[in-house]
Amino acid sequence: MIFRPIVPQEINAVLAQIRPDPSTAVSADTVRARLADGEYRPGWIWVAEPAPGQAPLAVAIWWGSPTDPRPSNLDALFARSDAISGPLPQARRLPRGPRPTTDPRSAVAAALLTAAHQVFAADGLTPAPDYHLFLPPDWRDHPAIAASVAWRRQAAEAAGLRLTAERLRFEWETDRPVPALSNRLFFTSEPDDEVFVDLFRRTSQRSLDVASTREVFLVGAEAHARSEVSFYHWEMPGERSWWRIARTLSGRVVGFAIPSHNSVVPVVGHFGVLPEFRGMGFAAEVLAEATRILAAETDAEVIRAETDLCNHPVVGALELVGYRDRTHRLVLSAV
Question: In Å, what is the CA distance from 248 to each residue of 12, 55, 204, 213?
Answer without folding.
Answer: 59, 63, 20, 27
